[in-house]
């Protein structure tokens, strides 16, 4: 009969097994584009204490049947509260549904870097079409039902505007938006809170049975604040 120590070790081993998919980041060394439409952005920020809000344009893929209200409550609300507290800015989420060439984007691909490039090009087209700004506070994220492949559940360009996140995990959206705001895997942590373990948003390999804290670490909060420090 196995002793208590053996059982405990087995439990902890299963607790920290990685999941089948992971959120990751596409390496992106592209210099940040010249910020545009700052006059419009300033006018929008005027009634909000002078700070431009963070605008997240969220494209709901056609394969996602979940209602917008549920998507917002499960995948966005905790992140919105966290970012508003960290940055002192309002976070505005606009959901976009049934938009051909965007919400039917073919995201499943063994080469996730190719997928990311194509999605960045697609969001550029949307920016031009809608006359949206190239600013650090404007983000575009594709929300998908499935992972991109058997390794990757999300993609984002570090400090850039475009991202993709599978809704398979409630942490993926916060993880990828975190990347677009310059947060790093290296600054992630696992915390022990309320009698159990939970992971910060930027954990690169989520573990089975470990919760999500729905927060960034202090180190990543500092990076996000610094990234937006020169933005009106």
SSE blueprint:
Elements (H helix, E strand, L loop, with lengths): L3 H12 L6 E2 L14 H8 L8 E7 L7 H20 L3 E6 L15 H19 L7 E7 L7 E5 L5 E5 L5 H9 L9 E4 L2 E4 L11 E2 L5 H10 L5
Parallel strand pairs: 1-5, 2-3, 2-4, 4-6, 8-9
Antiparallel strand pairs: 5-6, 7-8
Helix/strand-derived category reads alpha/beta
String of helices and strands: HEHEHEHEEEHEEEH
Contiguous low-pLDDT stretches (5 residues minimum) are 1-48
Radius of gyration, taken over Cα atoms and rounded to an integer in Å:
18 Å
Give me the side-by-side strand order of the main sheet.
1-5-6-4-2-3
Number of strands: 9
The oligomeric status of these chains comes to single chain
Shape: globular
What summary fits the major beta sheet?
Answer: 6 strands, mixed
Count of runs of 4 or more consecutive helical residues: 6
Separation of the first and last Cα atoms: 65 Å
Amount of helix: 25-40%
What is the overall pLDDT average?
84
Strand content: 15-25%
Short description, anyone?
This protein is an alpha/beta fold and 232 residues long.
How would you portray this structure in words?
The chain is α/β, with parallel strands linked by helices and 232 residues long. Strands 1-5-6-4-2-3 form a 6-stranded mixed β-sheet, with helices on both faces. The longest helix has 20 residues. The N and C termini lie far apart (65 Å). The N terminus is likely disordered.
